[in-house]
Amino acid sequence: MISRAYQHPLNSSRVPPGETLLDVSGITLRFGGITALDDVSFRVTQGHVHAVIGPNGAGKSSLLNCLSGLYRPQQGSATLHTRAGGAEGNGSPEAAPTTTHDLVRMKPHRIAALGVARSFQNIELFRHLTVLDNLMLGRHVRMRHRLLPSLAWYGPARRQEIEHRELVEEVIDLLQIQAVRHTPVGALAYGYQKRVELGRALCLQPALLLLDEPMAGMNAEEKEDMARYILDVHELAGVTVMLIEHDMNVVMDISNRVSVLDFGALIADGTPAEVSSHPDVIKAYLGEELSA
Ligand SMILES: Nc1ncnc2c1ncn2[C@@H]1O[C@H](COP(=O)(O)OP(=O)(O)OP(=O)(O)O)[C@@H](O)[C@H]1O
Asked: By its UniProt entry, which CDD domains does this protein fall under (predicted)?
């Protein structure tokens, strides 16, 4: 369980667990003659780890890019549900009014401000900055900039900085990166860098965390560690996670639900058990790996 009393909720979604958080509907994305996503629809439930799998070129990264505003699909919608209150909100989430936001019509910074955080397939950190500085930068979306007090390092700006720092320290604790907090990211082992990237996304206090192959390039031990941290983020912090992953054993172990893409189309969507026995999935992707 939680190793210390955390003061700041890392999950900013107030949608009750079990309800729909994200409704992906009929997304079609084309690049010239290539259809990267073909009428893709599925739902992500609040409180789930939701995996998206599929062979190389199936459209997984394109899908995440549509959800984070980097690609604009020609058709379809991705409706994020939010409840009033946010990360520090009071009162019953059930009683709070629901608002919907179509992510595919929004700019990346607006999507980030709603709490949709993502990590990338290739590490996108500032290598010469320390772990702590990289994590503090992850807070920028939540910071209220006020130029004058910030320059004077005075009053509200100072209090705000201290609060941000407290939250960042809690993320450091959750991901167990205390020992390297003052180390430049570029000097860290690959597994640690990926963990810092996860930490930076968490510092946004996400409503939805999008992870693009968080275990790519890791050895078995690093993968096991990362799987454990993703589960902690999910179980201890209550954050809904949508992840792309190639390692089927990991996906089956940590996911509540799995959506399978093949040539841009959704060919299966269900629990890990349902998906792993689906004939189209076995044919398209999993093959002997799962039938063995
Ligand atoms: N910016 C782009 N311009 C042109 N084609 C693209 C672009 N991004 C993706 N594609 C194409 O869209 C298809 C889906 O690519 P995508 O990277 O989403 O697949 P993926 O499932 O994430 O693959 P991988 O597992 O190899 O990362 C591929 O045919 C790819 O070449």
From this structure: ABC_Mj1267_LivG_branched
Check if the beta carbon of residue 82 is closer than 8 Å to that of residue 99.
yes
The owner of tokens 């690093």 is 222
Give exposure, 152-167, as e/b (b: 16+ Cβ within 10 Å).
eeeeebeebeeebeeb
Tell me if 68 is assigned to some domain.
Answer: yes
101 Cα–ligand 1 center, Å: 25
Q: Is the Cβ–Cβ distance between 146 and 91 less than 8 Å?
A: no
Q: Specify the residue with its C-alpha closest to ligand 1, atom 5.
A: 31
From the CA of 58, give the closest atom in ligand 1: 21
Is 58's C-beta closer than 6 angstroms to any atom of ligand 1? yes
Residue 186: inside a domain = no
Number of domains composing the chain = 1
- On whether residue 127 sits in a domain, the answer given is no
d(C-alpha 212, C-alpha 237), whole Å = 20
Global model pTM greater than 0.90: no
- Ligand 1 and 34: CB distance under 6 A: yes
The domain that holds 91 is classified in CATH as 3.40.50.300
Q: Per residue of the chain (292 residues), what is the pLDDT tens digit? A: 445 556 777 888 889 999 999 999 999 999 999 999 999 999 999 999 999 999 889 999 999 999 999 999 999 999 999 987 645 455 566 666 789 999 999 999 899 889 999 887 666 778 889 998 899 887 776 665 555 555 555 556 667 777 788 889 889 988 888 899 899 999 998 888 888 999 998 888 899 999 999 888 888 888 888 999 999 888 888 899 999 987 778 888 899 999 999 999 999 999 999 998 899 988 886 554 544 4
The ligand 1 atom at the shortest distance from the C-alpha of residue 261 is 21
* Residue 169 is assigned to a structural domain of this protein: no
Question: Cα of 67 to ligand 1 centre, how many Å?
Answer: 15
Q: Rounded to whole angstroms, how far apart are CA atoms 262 and 269? A: 12
Domain span including residue 102: 16-115+246-292
